[in-house]
């Protein structure tokens, strides 16, 4: 799989973050190379394509549980490496599938937000509020007071917030897999991104369509612990893995040959030099 990229502030560090991640549930970075037309990233091929292709209708609880457990495993690995995705979504190819339809392996991709500075995050947040990505935005990122308070916070203080943001987004993904639509939407306008949607997110107001979709109480309990409006009260990725709904889940694809982890042959210096050459060649 190849991706053309635009060189922006933080591009190199975001790529290096991705390069250092070796986990079965993370799309593997191969190399960066330069052509006359642009910079390209070569990555592991995900034969199953984007997750959203599987979501034309709600998934069963058992299938959702297997995929979500893999998402949690990959997310926890990232957090243990002090890497925070901050862009988990279904629509933007950040969640891919590999392997067979009956036993898919979930792969997290799209680490372009992994090393954005606070100001960059604020600017992207403004964009999120008026885009479909708003459905993944946690309450704390919609509250101006919280964003303002982050301006004086150091990286150590921000880490729990970044972790909590990824957890919230993963909960939106789980809800979407189970229910067939997104949480917090206004029932009168399910496709609208408007003030009512943002108010429902900030208040943590959502209803699971139990009259149409049957799930266990244990699953609903996990969702309720994810959708805590205060990030300090929100369940962590490590706690999610030990939650009764996910604990003991056996992933048959854990020993699959597709899980062979192959480090990139490029050194960090090779990548940095490649990006520098491209940047200098595009200057007027």
UniProtKB/TrEMBL annotation:
Task: Tell me the protein's name.
Answer: non-specific serine/threonine protein kinase
Q: Which InterPro entries match?
A: Kinase-like_dom_sf, Prot_kinase_dom
- Name the enzyme's class: transferase
Q: Per the UniProt entry, what species is this protein from, by scientific name?
A: Symbiochloris irregularis
UniProt-listed PANTHER family: CALCIUM/CALMODULIN-DEPENDENT PROTEIN KINASE KINASE-RELATED, SERINE_THREONINE-PROTEIN KINASE CHK1
The Gene Ontology terms for molecular function here are: ATP binding; protein serine/threonine kinase activity
Q: Which GO terms describe its biological process?
A: signal transduction
What is this enzyme's EC? 2.7.11.1
Keywords, sorted A to Z: ATP-binding, Kinase, Nucleotide-binding, Serine/threonine-protein kinase, Transferase
């Amino acid at each position: 799989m190849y991706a053309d990229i635009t060189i922006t502030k933080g591009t190199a560090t975001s790529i290096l973050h991705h390069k250092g991640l070796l986990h079965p549930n993370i799309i593997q970075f191969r190399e960066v190379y330069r052509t006359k037309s642009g910079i390209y990233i070569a990555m592991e091929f995900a034969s199953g394509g984007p997750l959203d292709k599987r979501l034309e209708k709600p998934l069963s609880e058992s299938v959702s549980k297997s995929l979500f457990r893999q998402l949690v495993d990959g997310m926890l690995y990232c957090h243990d490496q002090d890497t925070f995705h901050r862009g988990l979504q279904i629509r933007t190819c950040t969640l891919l599938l590999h392997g067979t339809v009956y036993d898919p392996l979930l792969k997290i991709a799209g680490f372009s937000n992994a090393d954005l500075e606070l100001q960059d995050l604020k600017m992207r947040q403004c964009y999120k509020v008026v885009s479909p990505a708003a459905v993944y935005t946690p309450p704390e990122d919609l509250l101006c007071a919280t964003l303002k308070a982050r301006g004086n916070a150091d990286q150590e203080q921000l880490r729990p917030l970044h972790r909590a943001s990824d957890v919230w987004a993963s909960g939106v993904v789980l809800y979407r897999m189970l229910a067939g639509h997104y949480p917090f939407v206004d029932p009168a306008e399910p496709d609208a991104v408007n003030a009512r949607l943002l108010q429902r997110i900030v208040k943590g107001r959502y209803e699971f369509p139990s009259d149409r979709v049957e799930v266990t109480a244990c699953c609903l309990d996990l969702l309720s612990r994810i959708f805590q409006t205060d990030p300090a009260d929100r369940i962590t990725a490590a706690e999610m893995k030990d939650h009764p709904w996910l604990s003991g889940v056996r992933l048959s694809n854990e020993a699959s040959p597709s899980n062979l982890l192959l480090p990139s042959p490029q050194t960090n210096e090779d990548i940095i030099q490649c990006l520098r050459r491209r940047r200098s060649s595009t200057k007027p």
